[in-house]
Specification:
The protein has 154 residues and is mainly alpha-helical. It has a domain of 72 residues. It contains five helices and three strands; from the N terminus they run αβββαααα. A three-stranded antiparallel β-sheet has the order 1-2-3. A hairpin with a 5-residue loop joins strand 2 and strand 3. Helix 1 crosses helix 2.
Length: 154
């Protein structure tokens, strides 16, 4: 099962990172903790995973494998996560990498129906046309859009 594979991979990575930090600090790995991307020594010293990655990659896992976290040690699993960006995404206020501008290229934006398998019945594009830089608005159906992959309908 993928869940067990991911748990094993996480445990192995954590074990290797703790071993790398233990070698750097000359401490027993069992005395080191991990939290939020850091290996932490009992005295408060910290090394981030990025600082340890190269050294950890050179180490070998023990033949017997490594211990998995017990459910009582989970910090995130089973906790409500919420989606801190959901409201901004749904309202169009969320900034994405796509929102960057590069030179004189065109930017295409797809506005989809908010309902699954919904189709456009009416489009009032007056506000969109009033935005500086808008060149063209092309209403298309889902079927038409599927046929346009790789084409630019300008």
């Amino acid at each position: 099962e993928a869940w067990q594979d991911l748990r094993s991979i996480g445990a192995a990575a954590r074990w290797l990172l703790r071993q790398a930090a233990a070698q750097r600090w000359n401490l027993p790995a069992e005395r080191l903790g991990t939290h939020a991307g850091w290996v932490i020594a009992p005295d408060g010293r910290r090394l981030d995973y990025g600082e340890l990655a190269a050294a950890a990659a050179q180490l070998q896992l023990p033949d017997a494998g490594v211990a998995l976290k017990s459910a009582s040690d989970y910090r995130l699993i089973g906790q409500p996560a919420g989606d801190v960006d959901a409201r901004a995404m749904l309202s169009g206020r969320q900034a994405f990498a796509f929102d960057q501008t590069w030179g004189d290229g065109y930017v295409a934006v797809i506005a989809r129906c908010p309902y699954a398998e919904g189709e456009l019945e009416h489009l009032d594009d007056s506000k969109a046309r009033a935005v500086a830089g808008v060149e063209k608005i092309i209403p298309i159906s889902v079927r038409e859009a599927a046929g346009l992959i790789g084409e630019v309908p300008l």
